[in-house]
Amino acid sequence: MDSNGAGTLAVAVAPGMPIFEVAIPYQVFYEPPLGVDPATWYDFRLCGPRATRHATLRDPFVALTDHDYDDLIRADTVIVPSTPNVREDPPADLVDAVHAAYERGARIASLCTGAFVLAAAGLLDGRRMTTHWRHIAALRDRHPHLDIDPGVLYIDDGRILTSAGTMAGMDLCIHLIRKDLGAQAANAAARYLVVSPHRAGGQAQYLQSPVPAHPADSGLAATLEWALTNLECALTVSDLAAHANLSERTLARRFHAELGGTPLRWLLTQRLIRARELLERTDLPVDVVAARCGLGTAANLRIHFNREVGLSPSEYRRSHRPTRHEVITDPARLS
Asked: Which residues form the HTH araC/xylS-type domain (predicted)?
């Protein structure tokens, strides 16, 4: 990958692919969001079949491309949005190109049923992976040896990443930006797309009540906003319940129904997002960062950071410190 940017990112298209899954990575990666240096952004390429360089997607859409599968093979990151039909073999030329890209060292990500292409290319053998819950049975019929996790949004296994269906693909794309360019760029992209800046990959694929029946009455929106403005405090589930005027048990049920997780898990995720922003954009010592994001001590921050991010705070700061942007010394300017 280019040390001066996020590298070349290729999105594969093939005849019969659904337009929505193709549109997600195009919308996310085609151009940088406001506030992100274009010099650091991805060199985006939409890649169609050789010779034609276009693909008739599911009627009535046609994708015209300036690049083909030979360009895809040379990319740093390849995204396969879907397979045209889960009941048929994926296009052989696409399977071969994805396999060749991986052999050259590319990182490969599948959205939704794009996992069928990766499986046909032999890239999912021995890996934990996921796909849209509706098509898991079909994938198991074709590849019974795969280790499929049906209950998560996406899985990052290093050079191979897979996501569940539809909007989980958006979550995976935002996750890639966070890995490559840091939390600030990921948050900027999420704001532009009007989506959550971070949904953990382990969150459930589908919820009994994904949207509150009466949002104005739930109380969670105001409580979440209040918690975000008070992350430096030692907030507890009792504090959240008191602010929402709910019992702790009812609060837990609301969190599970509306956010797909527990209050404590949500708090930890927000604290780590805040810690990433402070590490990227300030020179504050690690112990001050820990205090500002509500994790208390540098030791506690290191434990959670290593577990969730795979790096120490200092390593993360070194690898994500922007070289072309100002470093903010007043954390109040982050808001």
From this structure: 221-319
Within the chain, all domains assigned CATH 1.10.10.60 are found at: 212-335
Beta bridge partners of 313: none
Strand residues in the chain grouped as ranges (E): 8-12, 43-48, 54-56, 62-64, 67-68, 77-80, 107-110, 128-129, 147-148, 154-157, 160-163
Q: What is the CB neighbour count within 10 angstroms for residue 272?
A: 21
Phi, psi of 128, rounded to the nearest 5 degrees: -75, 135
Q: Does residue 331 have a cis bond before it (omega within 30 degrees)? A: no
Q: Give the architecture-level CATH label for domain 212-335.
A: Orthogonal Bundle (1.10)
pLDDT, average across residues 132-159: 91
Q: Name residues whose C-beta falls within 8 Å of residue 225's C-beta, 6 or more positions apart in sequence.
A: none
Task: For CATH 3.40.50.880, list the domain ranges present in the chain.
Answer: 8-193
CB atoms within 10 A of CB 239: 17
User: In which residue are the tokens 């959205």 written?
Assistant: 111
The 8-class DSSP code of residue 159 comes to: T
**CB 279 within 8 Å of CB 313:** yes
Q: Judging by DSSP bridges, how do beta strands 67-68 and 128-129 pair with one another?
A: unpaired
Cβ pair 103, 154 in contact under 8 A: no
C-alpha of 218 from chain center: 27
Q: What secondary structure letter does DSSP report for 205?
A: S
CATH for 8-193 is: 3.40.50.880
Check whether 289 has a pLDDT greater than 80: yes
